[in-house]
């Protein structure tokens, strides 16, 4: 590789330096008995590397708590609830802006390191950490969520500087034979701080709605530690020689660092290198992109890109969420995250031992191979875990393998190897470019991960909807199927004793593992409809209109609610033949309604293979006392609710989706708005209650205690919460979404209007772009006359049956 370098443009010493470092047959280093500068290493890593790792991981476990506080703060500041899309966007910004700050901070690594010195730059960087920690801690107590986001950005600046300054300082104060091991210690400190951040986020420490701000205040400890210790550390002897011309001080520091007086040879080597490289005033970053530095720089950039695009930071930022989506429930995702952090620390310790024995290239490539294997299997196992519960643990195993692979080499080597690739005068500038690259990729991954997750989930659903009818049905039972949405779990043998009965809605330890799996699967299927529109249809032609408009599902009805109100009489289950005809012409899920308490109608609907059953108050109730016990069925159920207590009772019976009852068939959205606001308000109230108050609330509202506690802890219903009843315009649909609904049911509002096809498409667009007034204004034009509608107060009473 040295042959690529233009030898005419560099000194003989630089040529030799690059040849030694870039030769692809790099010699393995031998262990050394050289003394390591322990005091400097501890001060530097505990004070600086800690901030980098800690703030990567500290936002993970308390994510739901902080998100809920964001929603509260937003409502207090602006007088209206935050929409789901805006909440997701705000949270993505809060997570990723840390990396944006790191990217910007990385740009200044070289300038500060060469101007102030390595040690002084680290010391002054604590000012940024103090400001950031103060902002993030105070934000909760003053109720301003964007102060927290600003604090994340400032701590990102601090971490970006630290990520370049720490390896630079450690490499320059270490002897040649210890550079790899000492350089790896910076990454070891990062992994330890990530683990600490995860532990302090557990509920028995600071992971509660009252104490989560102390997670960020905890970061003051390493700041104070470094302010007290770093002034007593030595400056880099190489900096003193090359930039400050303080030869005597460099010699004194070398003696202290090496623990011996005979440092003449090393000092002369430093002086020779400094002399041949001149000074930093004769070098600028642009020169890195010219020979002889362009190839070492390319190598450094690609090593940093390989580290970040491995997805390891996405795993750190979102590990708890990943484990939840893989099927783990209760506190298992939190403890799986702790296990991941522990493995990361242990393997990084092993890496510091191996680095000088196996070489940089071997460990880095081995780590990348392990990453490729583990990420592929993680993707597969997360899909399969939706139906086969024990695959959740396959996901954990390969997330751990992913962590092991990164810790083997890609996690630490890129940070210090860049310092070995470049001579002294180019080292700081090269660090700036490398750190900027790393944090840019980090920011991209942190921002795109949630969006990519949604994107690939939609691709999975779309794929199965389109092709399951051609013999793939038996091979892809985890996806929507136009013939049969039910999951076949008969072959699943799971010996895992998971006592999380909350997801089942009942405290029933006798429920089988298969029942738990089916319950989790049904809720997952309901979640796939989030952000969409479910349309009531009375025949195959209307179903085709709904699908063409972009509906995510259709509800097969003999009469839409407006006609039921108009005609009167007894409203019953739809004709199975009509349901069959609808299923034949669409590829999206088909729902159907049964009467409240009429479990035989539900049995018939399950037999004709509908994808969801709606036990609906729109139809005439068959039982004035009892609802259907939905746990007996394999098909997921939808139920209406006007209040949180009613919603939790329906969930305890087995409902996989809740919709507000609204005032179906009225064309008047006022009742739906009332019910959405009521449920959201009650949820916010629960999150502020202590255990005794939650028990009392559950008793007063006849709600299952386990579900009450889960709702209070998570800040949302245990199942998706959709809105229905009286939606007639795109504005109505957007209103419900902005109030917190996760999808919208529409029926009479479309097919009782002048132009059903155009109105249906407009309502779908309104749900997608519900927080964009300009888009809503455009799609609301030229839709024709909406359904006449009626005043809910005089529309006649609908069945409530709130039990």
Helix content: 55-70%
- Global mean pLDDT: 78
- Sheet having the most strands: 8 strands, parallel
CATH topology category name of the largest domain: Growth Hormone, Chain: A
CATH architecture heading of the largest domain: Up-down Bundle
Terminus-to-terminus distance: 77 Å
Count of DSSP-assigned helices: 34
Taken from the alpha-carbon principal axes, the silhouette is: elongated
**Radius of gyration computed on alpha carbons:** 31 Å
* Class by alpha and beta content: mainly alpha
What is the total number of structural domains?
A: 3
Q: Which percent range describes the beta-strand content? A: under 5%
Question: How many β strands by DSSP?
Answer: 8
The CATH superfamily title of the largest domain: MFS general substrate transporter like domains
Major β-sheet strand ordering = 7-6-5-4-3-2-1-8
Which parts are unreliable, with pLDDT below 50 for 5 consecutive residues or more?
Answer: 1-11, 21-32, 454-510, 793-803
User: For the record, what CATH class of the largest domain applies?
Assistant: Mainly Alpha
What's this entry about, in short?
This protein has 803 residues and is mostly helical.
Could you explain the architecture of this structure?
This protein is mainly α. The chain has three domains: 36-233 and 278-455, MFS general substrate transporter like domains (Growth Hormone, Chain: A, Up-down Bundle); 234-277; 531-790, TIM Barrel (Alpha-Beta Barrel). 61% of the residues lie in helices and 4% in strands. The protein contains 34 helices and eight strands. Strands 7-6-5-4-3-2-1-8 form an eight-stranded parallel beta sheet. Strand 3, helix 26 (599-607) and strand 4 (612-616) form a beta-alpha-beta unit. It is elongated and about 105 Å long. This is Major facilitator superfamily (MFS) profile domain-containing protein. Its main location: membrane. It is a multi-pass membrane protein. It is found in: Cell membrane.
């Amino acid at each position: 590789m040295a042959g690529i370098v233009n030898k005419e443009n560099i000194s003989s010493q630089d040529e030799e330096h690059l040849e030694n470092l870039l030769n692809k047959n790099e010699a393995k280093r031998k262990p050394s008995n050289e003394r390591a500068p322990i005091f400097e290493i501890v001060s530097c890593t505990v004070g600086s590397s800690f901030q980098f790792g800690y703030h990567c991981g500290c936002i993970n476990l308390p994510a739901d708590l902080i998100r809920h506080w964001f929603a509260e703060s937003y409502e207090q500041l602006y007088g209206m609830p935050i929409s789901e899309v805006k909440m997701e966007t705000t949270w993505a910004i809060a997570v990723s802006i840390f990396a944006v700050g790191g990217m910007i901070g990385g740009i200044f690594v070289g300038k500060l390191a060469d101007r102030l010195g390595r040690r002084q730059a680290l010391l002054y960087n604590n000012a940024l950490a103090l400001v950031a920690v103060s902002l993030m801690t105070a934000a909760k107590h003053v109720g301003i969520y964007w102060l927290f986001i600003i604090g994340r950005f400032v701590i990102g600046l601090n971490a970006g500087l630290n990520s370049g300054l720490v390896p630079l300082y450690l490499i320059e104060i270490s002897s040649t034979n210890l550079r790899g091991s000492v350089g790896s210690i910076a990454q070891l400190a990062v992994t330890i701080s990530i683990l600490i951040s995860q532990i302090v986020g557990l509920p028995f420490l600071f992971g509660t709605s009252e104490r989560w701000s102390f997670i960020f205040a905890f970061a003051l400890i390493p700041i104070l530690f470094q302010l007290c210790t770093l002034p007593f550390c030595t400056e880099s002897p190489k900096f003193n020689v090359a930039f400050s011309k303080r030869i005597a001080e460099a010699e004194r520091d070398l003696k202290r660092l090496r623990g011996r007086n005979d440092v003449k040879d090393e000092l002369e080597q430093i002086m020779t290198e400094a002399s041949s490289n001149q000074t930093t005033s004769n070098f600028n970053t642009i020169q890195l992109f010219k020979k002889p530095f362009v190839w070492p720089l390319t190598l450094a950039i690609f090593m940093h890109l390989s580290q970040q695009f491995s997805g390891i930071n996405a795993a750190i930022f979102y590990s708890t969420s990943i484990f939840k989506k893989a099927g783990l429930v209760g506190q298992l995702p939190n403890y799986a995250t702790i296990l991941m952090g522990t493995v990361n620390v242990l393997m990084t310790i092993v890496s510091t031992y191996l680095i000088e024995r196996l070489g940089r290239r071997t460990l880095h490539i081995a780590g990348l191979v392990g990453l490729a294997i583990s990420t592929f299997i993680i993707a597969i196992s997360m899909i399969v875990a939706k139906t086969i519960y024990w695959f959740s643990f396959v996901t954990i195993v390969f997330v751990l393998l992913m962590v092991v692979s990164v810790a083997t080499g890609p996690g630490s080597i890129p940070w210090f190897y860049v310092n070995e690739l470049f001579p002294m005068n180019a080292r700081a500038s090269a660090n700036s470019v490398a750190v900027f690259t790393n944090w840019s990729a980090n920011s991209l991954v942190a921002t795109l991960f949630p969006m990519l997750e949604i994107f690939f989930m939609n691709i999975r659903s779309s794929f199965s909807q389109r092709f399951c009818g051609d013999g793939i049905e038996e091979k892809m039972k985890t996806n929507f199927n136009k013939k049969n949405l039910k999951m076949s779990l008969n072959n699943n043998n799971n010996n895992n004793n998971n006592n999380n009965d909350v997801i089942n809605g009942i405290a029933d330890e006798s429920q089988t593992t298969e029942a738990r799996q089916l319950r989790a699967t049904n809720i997952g299927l309901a979640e796939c409809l989030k952000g969409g529109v479910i349309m009531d249809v009375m025949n195959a032609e209307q179903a085709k209109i709904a699908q063409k408009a972009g509906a995510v599902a259709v509800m097969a009805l003999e009469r839409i609610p407006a006609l039921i109100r108009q005609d009167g009489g007894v409203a019953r289950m739809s004709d199975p033949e009509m349901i069959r005809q609808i299923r034949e012409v669409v590829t999206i899920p088909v729902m159907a309604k049964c009467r409240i308490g009429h479990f035989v109608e539900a049995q018939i609907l399950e037999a004709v293979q509908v994808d969801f059953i709606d036990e609906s108050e729109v139809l005439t109730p068959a039982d004035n006392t009892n609802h259907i016990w939905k746990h007996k069925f394999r098909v997921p159920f939808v139920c209406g609710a006007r209040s949180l207590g009613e919603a939790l009772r329906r969930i305890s019976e087995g409902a996989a989706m809740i919709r507000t009852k609204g005032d179906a068939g009225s064309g008047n959205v006022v009742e739906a708005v009332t019910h959405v606001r009521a449920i959201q308000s009650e949820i916010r109230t629960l999150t502020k209650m202590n255990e005794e108050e939650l028990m009392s609330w559950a008793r007063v509202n006849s709600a299952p205690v386990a579900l009450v506690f889960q709702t209070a802890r998570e800040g949302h219903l245990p199942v998706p919460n959709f809105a229905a009843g009286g939606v007639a315009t795109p504005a109505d649909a957007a209103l419900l979404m902005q109030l917190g609904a996760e999808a919208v049911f529409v029926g009479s509002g479309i097919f009782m209007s002048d132009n059903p096809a155009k109105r249906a498409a407009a309502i779908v667009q309104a749900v997608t772009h519900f927080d964009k007034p300009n888009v809503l204004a455009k799609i609301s034009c030229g839709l024709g006359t909406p359904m006449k509608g009626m005043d809910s107060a005089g529309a006649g009473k609908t069945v409530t049956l709130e039990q």
